[in-house]
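Onboarding guide, step 5: your first structure request.
Type a short instruction followed by the sequence, for example:

Predict the 3D structure of this protein.
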Amino acid sequence: MQLKKNSTDTSYKVLKAQRQDGIALITVLVIFTVLSIMAIHILSNQHMNNRRTANIINSSKAYQYMYGAEEFAKSLLQNYFEESKQERVHRNQPWAQSPMMFPIEQNMGQLEGSVKDMHSCFNLNSIIMEPVAGVEDPAGEDGRGDSGGGLQLVEESAKSGANEELPGQRLFTKLIEPLIEQSESSPSALAAAVRDWIDDDLEPSGIDGAEDYTYTGYSKPYRTGNTYLAHNSELMVIKGFNAKIYDSIKEYICVLPTDQGTINVNTVKPEQAELVWILLEDVDLATVKQALEQLPEDGYDEASFFETLGSGKVSQDGRGRLVFDSQYMQLTATAMVQTGSAKVQSLLKKTNTKFEVVARHIGD
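The system replies with structure tokens like these:
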């Protein structure tokens, strides 16, 4: 009987030892699993942090190249106009050709830039401008020129009434009428809404106007800007505009933080001849387009332009807007360095042959 008891004790001890070994193995496996998960988590975080750091570094590099492109463009433009002694800005000049592209960072990135004349589009802020008479010149004696002068801000006290359309409104209406398809808002209503968004009064310009009382009634209320537009995209919050209308007219419009509303005949593309045509009368669009296609090597002056047209003159609304030189140009520069990218639109002001940045918009 004693032998049997010892045999049982031995079996129990063996079973107990095996159980303890199993628990120890499970414990080791649990610890190994936990440590593996922690290691994977640490490595994953490290990899993510490395990528985040690389993105920050690449984006920072892209921004520096972007600003470098701005300085480079200013230098190229200044050197060109100094050396060429060009009398006017026109689209036969090198700046108006294809965009320039450069490899950067040992071909790990790319820098692209293009320049656009900001007098080859309709400045939305000039809707509230009106012609001002200047000293008459010979070009204006036959009624073809604009008799000098320029544009001035419409004074509230000078308005004969809020229902009266401004010259800029009529020009904008004439420009977009053939561009937009049938929509809920008429071209004249869109022009009135833009006028009210920009002017500093609170009185709607006729039945199509829209001031604060209109926008504060929306489900997400807001107020009118009552100042110059800062970007084309602001049209999207103005009564009557939508994405379809915006896409139809965006190539014809622009925004300048000034009262400049002039159109340079020498930089308008033939396919956008409407920009020049709206400033004229007694001439059809096809004739204007043909004249732009025949742009002389050094551009038109006033006499040669109207001689090429063969007919027509500056309209009453277009007085002070038709010009043959430019003051503002816009650089669009995009820098890409691996995962980083940066884009800037810099408004350059030309004074003689000098260029300076007067406004900057970063992003699309």
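Each response can be followed by summary notes, for example: Residues 135-141, 156-160 have pLDDT under 50 and may be disordered.
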